[in-house]
Automatic annotation (TrEMBL):
<dbReference type="GO" id="GO:0016887">
    <property type="term" value="F:ATP hydrolysis activity"/>
</dbReference>
<dbReference type="Pfam" id="PF00005">
    <property type="entry name" value="ABC_tran"/>
</dbReference>
<keyword id="KW-0547">Nucleotide-binding</keyword>
<protein>
    <submittedName>
        <fullName>Branched chain amino acid ABC transporter, ATP-binding protein</fullName>
    </submittedName>
</protein>
<keyword id="KW-0813">Transport</keyword>
<keyword id="KW-0029">Amino-acid transport</keyword>
<dbReference type="InterPro" id="IPR030660">
    <property type="entry name" value="ABC_branched_ATPase_LivF/BraG"/>
</dbReference>
<feature type="domain" description="ABC transporter">
    <location>
        <begin position="6"/>
        <end position="238"/>
    </location>
</feature>
<dbReference type="GO" id="GO:0015807">
    <property type="term" value="P:L-amino acid transport"/>
</dbReference>
<dbReference type="InterPro" id="IPR003439">
    <property type="entry name" value="ABC_transporter-like_ATP-bd"/>
</dbReference>
<dbReference type="GO" id="GO:0015658">
    <property type="term" value="F:branched-chain amino acid transmembrane transporter activity"/>
</dbReference>
<dbReference type="InterPro" id="IPR027417">
    <property type="entry name" value="P-loop_NTPase"/>
</dbReference>
<dbReference type="GO" id="GO:0005524">
    <property type="term" value="F:ATP binding"/>
</dbReference>
<comment type="similarity">
    <text>Belongs to the ABC transporter superfamily.</text>
</comment>
<dbReference type="InterPro" id="IPR052156">
    <property type="entry name" value="BCAA_Transport_ATP-bd_LivF"/>
</dbReference>
<dbReference type="InterPro" id="IPR017871">
    <property type="entry name" value="ABC_transporter-like_CS"/>
</dbReference>
<dbReference type="InterPro" id="IPR003593">
    <property type="entry name" value="AAA+_ATPase"/>
</dbReference>
Length: 239
């Protein structure tokens, strides 16, 4: 068994009176792609934001390679290599593609390796090379998502957390994004993927967790969840 990168235990998070997470347990091991699926409002984004330190849990623990993260500031969590690619991508529209990518490496000082990683990211996303000096705001939705993923890679992530990378994209572009996620896995990058697009997510995932109103109701290998009657009925119906 590979080393545990992330371990979440009994995680509870509330927005005032609204209990968004009601005791979540999950783990991610080195090199795995783990998918969190569930309907709108299940608590998927809340989970990622809490791991990133943007929200403070009411209860429970989060450990990164055996070290507690729960009371750490977000910038400190980023510097440990937990990289969050947020829903809506959050590229800086008035900055160039180049600057957005370099922003991903802001915690690093190894100039030569940063340049090498930039070359690798541009090889993976040729369109970003073409648009290197363009303002990021002028890219299409799919290209902005690639930029957000590329920016995450520039941080040399220990674990990459992707929040709904397929949201709002055309079907053909969604296919491309999932190819990229498969590619991250092949490169040995550990990925925690949040998706409403359950079928595609489970296809690329080693394991998955199904979230319903703040609780994990099922967890299994991606392949078994894809075959499971419960998942099929609730999430794969029309997709
Ligand atoms: P989505 O796909 O819509 O992002 P999700 O599974 O990521 O869904 P969350 O966004 O984590 O779900 O929301 C979980 C619950 O917390 C929902 O009931 C939501 O209404 C509530 N919630 C989320 N953000 C806030 C907030 N800032 N203030 C109050 N309630 C919130």
């Amino acid at each position: 068994m590979m080393e545990k990168v992330l371990q979440v235990k009994n995680l509870k998070v509330a927005y005032g009176p609204i209990k968004a997470l009601k005791g979540i347990d999950l783990e991610v091991r080195q090199g795995e792609t783990v998918a969190i699926i569930g309907a709108n409002g299940a608590g998927k984004s809340t989970l990622l934001k809490t791991i990133s330190g943007l929200l403070k849990p009411a209860e429970g623990t989060i450990e990164f390679r055996g070290q507690p993260l729960t009371s750490m500031a977000p910038h400190h969590i980023v510097s440990k290599g937990l990289i969050h690619v947020p829903e809506g991508r959050a590229v800086l529209g008035r900055m160039t593609v180049e600057d957005n990518l370099l922003m991903g490496a802001y915690c690093r000082k190894d100039e030569k390796e940063i340049q090498e990683d930039l070359e690798k990211v541009l090889a993976l996303f040729p369109i970003l090379k073409e648009r290197f000096k363009f303002q990021a705001g002028n890219l299409s939705g799919g290209q902005q998502q690639m930029l957000a993923i590329g920016r995450g890679m520039m941080a040399r992530p220990q674990i990459m957390m992707l929040d709904e990378p397929s949201l709002g994209l055309a079907p053909i572009v969604i296919k491309e994004i999932f190819e990229i996620i498969k590619n991250l896995r092949d490169k040995g990058i550990t990925v925690l993927l949040v998706e409403q697009n359950a079928k595609q997510a489970l296809k690329v995932a080693d394991r998955g967790y199904v979230l319903e109103t703040g609780r994990v109701v099922l967890s299994d290998s991606g392949a078994n969840l894809l075959r499971s009657e419960e998942v099929t009925r609730a999430y794969l119906g029309e997709r």
